[in-house]
TrEMBL record:
InterPro entries: Gln_synth/guanido_kin_cat_dom, Glu_cys_ligase, Glut_cys_ligase. It comes from Levilactobacillus tujiorum. This is Glutamate--cysteine ligase. The lineage of its organism: Bacteria, Bacillati, Bacillota, Bacilli, Lactobacillales. Residues 7-324 form the Glutamate--cysteine ligase domain. Keywords: ATP-binding, Glutathione biosynthesis, Ligase, Nucleotide-binding. It is an enzyme of class 6 (ligase).
Length: 510
């Protein structure tokens, strides 16, 4: 199935389009107070309602912020939007709140946990949240990470399908096979990503009631280990085949093992349909990759090199065959390796270094055939060096900052520095240096309120600003923003925009 896919990609000259596969990000992060504890403030009051906000959401805790970008074919565009959204988030923080830079939460005592348990301001999802607390505990939901949403360009799928019409009756079946091969191989090689990007070596006091013996010393990634953000071992869903995956997922929902599909915490989720069985008729629209820890080495929480590498890695996964007779064995080996790598000493070479070298050799051969760009070659070169030098991994670098078994001092220092750098920047939105201050303020207000924003240029090269809410799009030029109160202007453009929600009193001193 899907034989000679790399040759077909070359024959159809599709490499350039594959480099421009869509990538969107969901960056989860915790707000902390001046003492480095989880913030007890409500969700920032200047943000529009979480019932519809496209850019700023929360999840398990009120202190968590989820920053969401639009899908973008260019890594630069994705990161520019993320940087703008992060800037808006920082400029919207209230009081002494800062952003915690690590996936594992800060120190938590009983009063912190009780506050998390007692305060939740989203009634619609409260039953699900109460279920999660009872099943997994409070600490489980306090971890954060980066989710990458990945989709192939539709023209690429159609061009490839024309070579496989003997195997697949419909383009939906072909697209499902393509995406599911990527998903299977992602599971198979997840261990390599955990090695390269794992950044959760220790847990702070209060996370475990009794710390596991396996975590007595620092590891690569608690979050990606069996002690992290995963389902119970007996509640895993297979990736052996698409049919089995969907059947098991639906069965666990029907029998009450999962509250809903949201409770499936596998390394990759199929996305784009409301129900599991709808994928067979409607097709997989994109994949959600869930392996990535927050990195404290860039203030956006995700590195540029990681995303450039990931684009090449996804093409590699798509073109790697998975023999049907060996699928179960290879997937089981991949999961076992991921557990072993996640719990390795981050200062030492991984026991699977030779296997990693083979992956890089094959990626280099593929990149050569596809005439990869300098950015892709640079990412491959740099991350192969990380493979050979474990001291360069995020987890190993974090270990050098551990003091008395804790990263609290490091995390607070980074949080203060990131806040200072954002707030004292010369421009309101550094990624829009050509725009005037009034235009930047209008854009920031729109993003706070939950109005979608896109910047384009007309045929004369003049900037056009597109604001969209509830299916209505308004287009402005810079002169239209001059001398106008931002929120007043936006509410005049979008009269149905809801008033800012009342999230409840500030709770810093409770």
């Amino acid at each position: 199935m899907l034989d000679n896919l790399l040759a077909v990609i070359r024959e159809e000259h599709l490499a350039e389009q594959l480099y421009h596969s869509l990538v969107g990000l969901e960056v989860e992060e915790q707000r902390i107070d001046q003492q480095g504890r989880l913030s007890r403030r409500s969700h920032p009051s200047k943000f529009g309602s979480r019932t519809f906000h496209p850019y700023f959401q929360t999840d398990f805790t009120e202190s968590q912020l989820e920053v969401i970008t639009d899908p973008n074919p260019n890594i630069g565009g994705t990161l520019d939007q993320l940087d703008t959204l992060q800037t808006v988030a920082y400029r919207t923080l209230e009081g002494d709140d800062r952003i915690w830079p690590l996936s594992m939460p800060p120190v938590m005592d009983e009063t912190d946990l009780q506050f998390v348990a007692d305060h939740f301001e989203r009634p619609a999802v409260k039953p699900y949240r109460e279920y999660l607390v009872k099943k997994y505990g409070l600490q489980h939901g306090c971890m954060t990470g980066v989710h990458v949403n990945y989709s192939l360009p539709d023209p690429v799928i159609h061009r490839l399908f024309s070579h496989y019409t003997d195997e697949f009756e419909t383009i939906v079946a072909f697209k499902n096979a393509l995406y599911f091969r990527i998903a299977q191989n992602f599971v198979r090689y997840q261990w390599l990503l955990t090695y390269l990007f794992g950044a959760s070596p220790i847990a702070e006091a209060g996370f475990f009631e009794t710390p596991p013996a396996e975590l007595a010393e620092p590891v690569r990634s608690i979050r990606n280990s069996r002690f992290g953000f995963v389902n119970r071992p007996e509640e895993q869903v297979t990736y052996a085949s698409l049919d089995q995956h969907l059947q098991q997922l639906q069965a666990k929902i029907d029998e009450g093992t999962y509250f809903s599909a949201h409770e499936f915490y596998g390394p990759v989720r199929l996305k784009g349909q409301a129900n599991a069985q709808d994928f067979l008729t409607g097709g997989i629209q994109y994949l959600e990759l869930r392996d990535f820890d927050n990195t404290p080495w860039t203030p956006n929480g995700v590195s540029r090199h990681a995303l450039y590498f990931l684009k090449m890695f996804m093409i590699y996964l798509m073109t790697q065959p998975l023999p049907a007779g060996k699928a179960l064995e290879l997937l089981a080996t991949g999961r076992q390796r991921n557990q072993l790598v996640a719990l390795e000493d981050p200062r030492s070479a991984t026991q699977f270094q030779a296997s990693g070298q083979r992956v890089f050799q094959e990626m280099r051969a593929m990149a050569d055939q596809l005439q990869a760009h300098n950015e892709q070659w640079g990412a491959i070169d740099d991350l192969e060096e990380v493979l050979m030098h474990p001291e360069l991994t995020p987890a190993a670098k974090l270990v050098t900052h551990i003091k008395d078994g804790s990263l609290m001092a490091f995390g607070q220092r980074v949080a203060r520095q990131w806040y200072h750098d954002r707030i004292t920047a010369a421009r309101l939105l550094p990624q829009s240096p050509r725009l005037g201050t009034e235009t930047q303020r209008l854009i920031m207000t729109a993003l706070q309120l939950g109005i979608r924003f896109y910047q384009v240029r007309d045929e004369d090269g003049e900037d056009m600003f597109m604001f969209t809410f509830d299916g209505i799009t308004q287009v402005l030029q810079e002169r239209d923003t001059m001398g106008k109160a931002p929120e007043e202007l936006l509410r005049r453009l979008f009269p149905d925009l809801p008033a800012l929600p009342v999230e409840g009193p500030q709770k810093n001193n409770l």
